[in-house]
Amino acid sequence: MPVLPYYSQKEPPSDAVIWRFLDLRKFRDLMASQELYFRRADLFDDQSEGLPPEQYVRHVLGLAPYDIKDEVALNNHLGSLAQSREMYFITCWYLYHKEDLAIWEQYGPDGVAVTSRYGLLKESLASIPDDTHIGLVQYGTAHLTDRFNAMEFITTKQGKYAVECEVRAILTSNNPLDGGNRHFDLNGFPHRVPLAQNPRHPWVQDCKRRRISLRDLLQGVVISPWAEPDEVEEINLWTKDRLSMVPTNSGLKSDRTPTLKEYRDYHHIQMPTPQPQRLASAQELEHYYEELMTLDLARVRFLYRQRWETCRLGTDGLPSKIDLQYLDTTLRVLKDLSAIKA
Question: Where in the chain are the domains?
Answer without folding.
Answer: 17-217, 282-341
